[in-house]
């Protein structure tokens, strides 16, 4: 009888309602990506039908061939991967160092400095477009990947995220014990703090990588040579003002999204772990 009661409790109406809600939410979230695949496999005349098609067609290869004929798709993918990886690695290192400093070290003016960093999160990034462009032009970095990588190496959100995670996840007792054993601050950071904060690194890495991969405005401003275009700027060239081939555009967009899905799936476990730890602590 006890086993039956336990089995019945697992299928309680409340849990079934929760699972139903989560399933509907997941399907709703996946539908735009699915419909992008549908459009990537159709011709314009099929896309413009009423009602529109909701099943994949047979033109995925031909539409993607049109993309390859109009832009250097794989070259743009490589450029974007290089830039996004460089920015992500640099951000993880610098923001985690700053987070460790603000969470575990004591120095004069720490609170004021951290508050000033948080204030910058309220400033729209578009306001810094002209000053940044002036600096990049002065340094001679136009059409150079440094124009995108260097300004993106550190951000206020990354410092805030790492500081909050380290503050909750790394006990002071471990830091003090390491100092008593003669460890320097950098060795404590590298050998103790970093291994304990891998979920936070994965979460911040996914966020930064996706942000850089999808960035359009700043690369459009500083990267004018087609040989250094990132994928979002390259896809812009598919928009012909006279004739919009939606199948071709959606095909390029679909394949440009696939690397993001792969990155998320690779670090999905650590990402969920960081969210779960935060939920338990709160």
TrEMBL record:
Residues 77-267 form the ABC transmembrane type-1 domain. Pfam families: BPD_transp_1. Keywords: Cell membrane, Membrane, Transmembrane, Transmembrane helix, Transport. The keyword Phosphoprotein does not apply. One of its GO terms (cellular component) is plasma membrane. The keyword Hydrolase does not apply. It is a multi-pass membrane protein. GO terms for biological process: transmembrane transport. Its main location: membrane. InterPro entries: MetI-like, MetI-like_sf. PROSITE patterns: ABC_TM1 (PS50928). It comes from the Bacteria. The chain crosses the membrane at residues 16-37, 76-100, 112-133, 145-162, 188-213, 246-267. It is found in: Cell membrane. Belongs to the binding-protein-dependent transport system permease family. This is Carbohydrate ABC transporter permease. It comes from Salipaludibacillus agaradhaerens. The lineage of its organism: Bacteria, Bacillati, Bacillota, Bacilli, Bacillales.
